[in-house]
Automatic annotation (TrEMBL):
<protein>
    <recommendedName>
        <fullName>DUF2071 domain-containing protein</fullName>
    </recommendedName>
</protein>
<dbReference type="Pfam" id="PF09844">
    <property type="entry name" value="DUF2071"/>
</dbReference>
<dbReference type="InterPro" id="IPR023375">
    <property type="entry name" value="ADC_dom_sf"/>
</dbReference>
<dbReference type="InterPro" id="IPR018644">
    <property type="entry name" value="DUF2071"/>
</dbReference>
Length: 253
């Protein structure tokens, strides 16, 4: 595991200022962010070539379990699709930095409840989407996210998250910015490592009380099963998002 050629870019809760022609538009709604600390040595073999684990304090990186509602995915500026483009999703994600110092996330899995978007994403951009039976339910002041994997597997891998959103966070901590202020993803695309940027408004973050977490998606993603409670539990009502053209680490910014 080697260091980037440049110092990592600053962590920022604000999106990049550069204009971006949208390839994809969508909204992420009712998000639960759960994070556990992991050893960078466990993460490094799972990242695309040319990237290394991004660490918060020089020694610790994190795995995130993020559940939410995808809403109206649209392509090339066209209006979002109401049925096929709207579905629950649960991601297992890691934190990466490339040789140019660009921070991003790397997805180990993306469980979604619509088969057609799963097939398209796997074929077009090689993201590890999987088809799952899923649900998001509100009951009083709690939100419940459920997922059970169908295809391609491991069949039956599951998650159940129940949390109670709390008050808005006026000033997130440095760690909360590190875990949520991400403006790109790294992925292996046709034999090369791609950098796919996104922009959205600053996250509206809320404290949240975790009432239940029963999951094995993190272990199914090739990481040690989390031990103990997550170090960070957050909720967000959501943001609209735009994804721009993919870029390879080392290409023009």
């Amino acid at each position: 595991m080697s260091l980037p050629d440049r110092n990592p870019e600053p962590v920022s809760p604000h999106p990049p200022a550069a204009p971006m022609p949208p390839l994809l538009t969508q909204s992420w709604l009712d998000l639960a962010f759960l994070h556990w600390a992991v050893d960078p040595a466990d993460v490094a073999p799972l990242l695309p070539p040319g990237t290394v684990p991004d660490t918060f304090d020089g020694a610790t990186t994190y795995v995130g379990l993020v559940a939410f509602r995808m809403y109206r995915v649209g392509v090339l500026g066209l209006p979002g699709i109401p049925y096929l483009g709207t579905f629950p999703e649960t991601n297992v994600r890691l934190y990466s930095v490339d040789g140019r110092g660009r921070r991003a996330v790397v997805f180990r899995s993306l469980d979604a409840s619509r088969l057609v978007p799963v097939l398209v994403a796997r074929a077009a951009v090689r993201l590890p989407y999987v088809w799952s039976r899923m649900g998001i339910e509100r009951s009083g002041d709690t939100v419940t996210y459920t997922s059970r994997r169908r295809w391609p597997g491991p069949r039956g891998a599951r998650s159940r998250i129940v949390l109670r959103p709390g008050g808005a966070i006026a000033e997130p901590t440095a760690l909360e910015h590190f875990l949520t202020g991400r403006w790109a993803l790294h992925t292996s695309l046709f034999g090369r490592t791609a950098y796919l940027p996104n922009v959205h408004p600053r996250w509206p973050l809320h404290r949240a009380e975790l009432l239940e977490c029963d999951e094995d998606l993190v272990a199914a993603g090739g990481l040690p099963a989390p031990a103990g409670e997550p170090m960070s539990v957050l909720y967000s009502p959501g943001v609209p998002v735009r994804f721009g053209p993919q870029r390879r680490p080392g290409s023009g910014a």
